[in-house]
Amino acid sequence: MILAEQGSGGRSRTQRWLVRYPRAVPLAIFTLIALITLLSIFSIERGEEERASAELRGRTTAVASALERRANSGAAYLRAGAALLASVPEIPPDQFSRFVSELRLDADYRGAEGFGWAPVVRATGLAAFEARIAAETQRPYQVDPRPDGSERYLVPVAFLQPDTERNRRALGFDMFSEANRRAAMLEAERTSRPTATERVVLKQEIADHAPGFLIYMPVFEPAPNGRRHLSGFIYSPFNASDFLASALELEEAGSYAVRLYDGDPDKGNLLASTGELPRNEREVITQTISIANNPWVLQVGSTGGGGISGLSVATLIFGLLTASLLMLLVRMLTQQAMEDEASLIWFEEQASIRNSLTRELNHRVKNTLANVLSILALTRRRATDLASFADGLDGRIRALSATHDLLTASDWGTTPVRAVVEAELLPYAQASDHLVDLRGPEVELAPNDALSLGLAIHELATNAAKYGALSEPGGRVTVYWKLATEQLMRIEWIERGGPPVPQSRSRGFGTDLIERIVAHELKNPVELAFEPEGVRCVLTMPVRRRGAFAMRAPKGSDTQAQASLPRTAPVAR
Length: 573
What we know:
Layout: H1 2-10, H2 13-20, H3 24-85, H4 93-103, E1 115-119, H5 126-137, E2 159-161, H6 179-191, E3 195-196, E4 200-201, E5 211-222, E6 228-239, H7 240-250, E7 256-261, E8 270-274, E9 284-290, E10 295-302, H8 310-382, H9 386-409, E11 415-416, H10 417-429, E12 434-439, E13 444-445, H11 447-466, E14 475-483, E15 488-496, H12 509-522, E16 526-531, E17 534-542
Parallel strand pairs: 12-14
Antiparallel strand pairs: 1-2, 1-6, 3-5, 4-5, 5-6, 7-8, 7-10, 9-10, 11-13, 14-15, 15-17, 16-17
């Protein structure tokens, strides 16, 4: 018990947890490391998202600045052109061409279709204007659409440089007849500033219906009364896609999608786009920009393809590997702790067994000595001389010894009924002139019960060999047993075929031993009948569970498990 207390006190709390929860502790360790890994990945992804968002905002600002610089660059040229054109009374084609070439020394129109001149023409002077432009350009020229008389004036395209086949499609078009263009020109006249139209389709793009816009700058000529007089508009037409592409040349969009809207972000207001915006609105930055006095909406989104970052993948792999290794290590520690616990329990049981064995041995030695003293006393009272005393005592001591041998072979565990009966009847089973019949199920006896049964069978067999069925040829002894209940077994000894049993006889030692010692040990009465045809004896014995008397078990097995028992060969008949 001292060893058991030391063992229990010496186990650490960690070992007790490992032994108590052998599966839960490794799983808890794995779950904890996995949660820490996921939290780390969440923090990394949150930081990456914030970094990407900041980068996206910076990129949006840069693209918006590039677009405004492109528009402002074109507006600056238009301001310069308006100042120059205002200083000349007439603008012939060659002079306008030279003027444009002087404005654009680098010949880079930066996303624009060129520069155009559209004078203000009254309806009454339309025919003279068409004749003059046709004469100057040496090409047919006619304003379209024709005026219906409701207009204040017309603003047809007179010249558009560079002089290309594509730009010639716009010559003669009355821009004042179209609402979007007219609104922009009126606003430019009112503010005297470059003003962009809303989304329109250029005359050059009639076939493709590609969206675009124009920037107008009014040209005023001095009037005699000191007031300004509108003479026309210098303008630049822009293809929206080319304009966006030229702006992105200044600020590379990289892995970002860009969309440019004339007004609210709606498909009908889309001017130009590059790439596909992500569906997640958190990955899209929307910003309002001003292009030539006209508010536009710019959207920039990442096209990086989502997913977790490489650092997060590395963290996930490392975390899972660490969690798996720790779980394996804790599992090994758990296994070791369980083995240590089993060993400690086994040592504690062995200490308890030693104490129990000492007490049991003392008890059994006392019982055996008491039986020997009883046998000795009874034998002495019944013996007539020293020889008969020695012979009777020798046989009974040998019966105890034979049963003890069976108990020793079974490690003082359970002993089969058949083995006990066979051991006592073995000397008489070899003869061919009488029969010994043993019948019954496999029933195991406790050690003390086996000793008592052995003494009883010995006395019955000795009596039968001297006076009963085993003393003459043709005699027969039948021993059969069965379970009366789960806790009791009935054993019956029957002799037949021997000498008749005298009904008037003195009480012998065997009778006293069976009815006193055996009955006392078995704690059940013994039925002993001396019938004329042979002796009949019925023993009632308890059938006890092994746990009621087992003291030891092999290491690593249940202490209540049945020990393996030897099986004695059947008695020959």
